[in-house]
Design goal:
Number of helices: 28
Strand content: 15-25%
Number of domains: 6
Radius of gyration: 33 Å
Strand order of the largest sheet: 13-14-12-15-16-18-17
InterPro entries: AAA_16 (IPR041664), Kinase-like_dom_sf (IPR011009), P-loop_NTPase (IPR027417), Prot_kinase_dom (IPR000719), Ser/Thr_kinase_AS (IPR008271)
Protein name: Protein kinase domain-containing protein
Pfam families: AAA_16, Pkinase
Number of strands: 26
Organism: Sorangium cellulosum
GO molecular function: ATP binding; protein serine/threonine kinase activity
């Protein structure tokens, strides 16, 4: 339609006011009243669109209330398209208003009461709005006390039993009640109360309680996460209001106010009681001196088991639930029969990645014909805070380049950050541009570095010592134990695989059995012995999720294993390589100890690799046995430089070699990941695996130290003690608290003081490495990052007089 067109000899079109997916809204003049009207015209011809349009028309025609947009007329254009004429409203909707400003505390409560009363009018007639959100709340004249409800296309009578198609979601995801998100067809007024609670929460805090980039991420939160408490997001909140919002956002409909009138009554009662006692918090503005919270993001792995093939309408997820429980994971089933799995915790990032990969591989055997996506993200305070990772996982499952899943198992695809955290024991192949996880080996071949094998620089002395001990074991001395200890990333596993490679190169006729201990959350008794028997080709099979009983009748701890190793040692030397010893189960270690006693004069060589905490876990491990410990140190600088030169070739300039060596500081894992980043195409050189690992290791620091690092990261690689204090307030009630903590971080070689200072009287400090800064920045929640940037800019402006300090 164009300006000047006349509809049914009554409405004169003036201009297009807006348009959307279903149609357009025109401003027109009503000849009957000589006033303006809004004419909504449906452009689509889909049956569902027409039904929604006619339903809105019927509801508005039946209701005459000042809080609901007024019906004027309806009909059809000459072209057959239906139209609905409504009163013309001057002002703006709440969503537009919120882009500029938030209402005051009092305005928020008043608006909530007005909307609740308008919903009550609908609920009295048995109508559920089903799509309440800020854009459907109109502020007449831009006033918060001039509220009208809009858009009744999804509204439906409570008694309606018409089913919604499977997988179809009607309504805006962030404001959906859990029962609506599950696709329930019997929604009642309490679904609108939940949506109103979401709107009120957003008015009072600046963000809805459930938000995310992907709709599926938001749905996951709505269905399975407790709603955040209002008091957690805004400190000046009366307990009564905090409790009322918690009731409105309750997961179970029975726990919410029963309808709009009940919600309005509760809000009115709160406002009345607050006014009588002169409660200052009712009119309080947001805190005048906001500070960064104590909330901290931690590494998390997100696993998404895709929906089954279309021909499958029912699946048995009990095996998946059992596997998730065994790995300490949280699993939740979604509408389309897919499932989300979350693994998180303050642990080394590489450990978490390995645990998640094993969980995915275990689930793949019970998710036939489906895809499983696995990504690394972050979680906060035990809650799902992994929208970017979840979005990546959804994209992994939807990637057309991925091969089709096999009929007998699922296809496991992973993202690049996950690949960087998995060591070479996991077999990953790039197929059609997609990373596919195929399985895990008990012991790894060295992972290629930039596509090429890499020499084992700097470990010649340790390898000579191990070879000499092996020769003694075979030649004359009998059973021998070599224990290699080092922190994560120093190179224990690589040393073990290099030792085995050297044995093969020498042509030694030996049996090699390998095993890797699993973390306590997912190990079973005698699990190490079971792995060794599998490696020896004599495993006792068990159904997934069941522990293998390696004990002979009447003999605890692996009698069958002892007989096996005795028999093999009678034929040739046996090398047992056990990795991640710190996680080994006690029953397996007792079985190995008995083997060492029984075979004290036989060629049994046990090479155990573990972290230093193995001595705390097993303080008397193999006491009295022939044990030699090698404490593996960080890689010396010269071998590190040799590896950089070997891998990067001409790209290994003196500056690159110096920078990588300085940041890696002898950590072999860091060194290789930094080399991969340096060898990556432009723009792809951020070593996510290193950042995640530094992040996880920060948990060795106390809470205050980590909070200082988070606040400091907002300023960049250089920061000031006074600026950090401005973001945090004084620690422990002492003005010197921040400076004391920074001094401790200097002593720990995490940050360093800078000579001079940009701001007179301020101590200037810098992160020793850019990656430490990035890891600290990654710990900040989105809310703290935004607040921190604003507070930091204000602090810098106040001291430097620089308008709009650049961050």
């Amino acid at each position: 339609m164009q300006s000047g067109d006349i509809v049914e000899d009554r409405f004169v079109i003036e201009q297009l006011a807006g348009h959307g997916g279903m149609g357009a809204v025109f401003r027109a003049r009503d000849r009957a009243s000589q006033g303006p009207v809004a004419m909504k015209v449906l452009r689509g011809r889909a049956e569902s669109d027409v039904a929604r349009f006619l339903r809105e028309t019927r509801i508005l025609r039946e209701i005459d209330d000042p809080r609901i947009v007024r019906y004027v007329a309806h009909g059809a254009l000459p072209s057959g398209e239906p139209y609905l004429a409504m009163e013309w409203l001057e002002g703006e909707d709440l969503a537009v208003r919120l882009t500029r400003e938030r209402p005051s505390y009092e305005e928020s409560i008043d608006l909530g009461i007005a909307v609740a009363e308008a919903l009550g009018v609908l609920h009295d007639r048995g109508i559920v709005h089903r799509d309440l959100k800020p854009s459907n709340i109109f502020l007449v004249g831009g006033r918060f006390d001039g509220v009208k409800l809009l858009d009744f296309g999804l509204a439906r009578a409570e008694s309606s039993t018409r089913k919604t198609a499977t997988g179809t979601l009607l309504g805006t995801v962030s404001y959906m009640a859990p029962e609506q998100a599950r696709g329930a067809s019997d929604l009642d007024a309490r679904a609108d109360v939940f949506a109103l609670g979401c709107v009120l929460f957003e008015l009072l805090t600046g963000a809805p309680p459930f938000a995310g980039i992907q709709a599926m991420s938001v749905l996951t939160k709505i269905l399975f996460e407790p709603a955040p408490r209002l008091a957690e997001r805004r400190r000046t909140v009366p307990p009564e209001l905090d409790e009322l919002l918690a009731r409105m956002l309750a997961k179970l409909p029975d726990d919410r106010p029963k309808n709009g009138h009940a919600a309005a009554e509760a809000l009115l009662d709160f406002r009345s009681r607050s006014a009588r006692r002169g409660d200052p918090t009712l009119l309080a503005a947001p805190p005048s001196e906001p500070r960064l919270s104590h909330c901290e993001l931690q590494p998390a792995a997100v696993l998404l088991v895709g929906a089954p093939p279309p021909e499958v309408d029912q699946v048995d997820d009990a095996p998946l639930e059992a596997i998730a429980a065994a790995y300490g994971a949280q699993i939740d089933r979604l509408l389309d029969l897919s499932a989300t799995v979350l693994l998180s915790g303050a642990t080394v990032a590489t450990d978490l990645a390995a645990q998640a990969a094993r969980c995915a591989l275990a689930m793949s055997r019970h998710a036939r014909g489906r895809r499983i996506g696995l990504s690394m993200g972050r979680s906060a305070s035990g809650q799902l805070r992994v929208e970017p990772a979840f979005d990546r996982t959804v994209r992994l499952l939807a990637d057309d380049a991925a091969p089709a899943p096999a009929a007998e198992s699922a296809l496991v695809v992973i993202d690049e950050p996950m690949l960087g955290l998995l060591d070479a024991r996991f077999e990953v192949r790039r197929t059609g541009g997609v990373l596919v996880l195929h399985g895990e080996r008990d012991i790894a071949e060295p992972r290629p570095l930039l596509g090429q094998p890499s020499p084992c620089f700097g470990r010649e002395r340790e390898l000579r010592s191990m070879s000499s001990l092996f020769d003694d074991c075979v030649g004359q001395s009998g059973a021998q134990v070599v224990l290699v200890t080092a922190p994560p990333g120093v190179g224990k596993t690589r040393l073990g695989s290099e030792f085995l490679r050297n044995l093969r190169a020498r042509g030694e006729d030996v049996d090699v059995w390998t095993a890797r201990a699993a973390p306590p959350s997912c190990r079973a008794s005698c699990s190490v012995i079971a792995s060794l028997r599998r490696s020896a080709g004599a495993a006792v099979e068990a159904r997934p999720g069941e522990a293998v009983d390696e004990r002979a009748p009447g003999e605890e701890g692996g009698g069958g294993f002892l007989d096996l190793v005795v028999a093999r040692c009678a034929e040739r030397p046996v090398v047992l390589l056990l990795d991640d010893l710190q996680w080994a189960d006690a029953a397996s270690l007792r079985a190995l100890d008995r083997a060492l006693v029984r075979l004290e004069d036989r060629p049994l060589f046990l090479l155990a690799l573990g972290r230093p905490e193995v001595h705390e876990a097993f303080p008397k491990l193999w006491d009295g046995r022939p044990l030699q410990e090698i404490r593996l140190r960080e890689l010396p600088r010269r071998p590190a430089e040799q590896l950089i030169q070997h891998a990067l070739g001409a790209r290994a300039t003196p500056e690159v070699i110096e920078r990588i060596s300085r940041i890696a500081r002898g950590n072999a894992f860091f060194l290789e990941e930094l080399i991969r980043a340096a060898g990556a195409p432009a723009g792809e050189g951020r070593p996510e695996a290193v950042i995640a690992t530094i992040h996880a290791r920060s948990f060795a620091l106390d809470d205050d130290a980590r909070r200082i690092l988070r606040a400091a990261s907002v300023f960049g690689e250089t920061f000031w003690a006074g600026g950090v204090a401005a973001l945090l307030g004084h620690l422990g009630g002492r003005s010197s608290g921040v400076q004391d903590r920074i001094d401790a971080l200097v002593e720990q070689d995490i940050v360093e003081r800078r000579p001079g200072a940009r701001f007179p009287g301020e101590t200037e400090v810098a992160f020793r490495h850019a990656l430490v800064h990035e890891a600290a920045l990654a710990m900040l929640t989105d809310e703290d990052r935004a607040l921190g940037r604003r507070l930091a800019a204000d602090w810098m402006e106040a001291r430097a007089g620089e308008a709009g300090a650049a961050l």
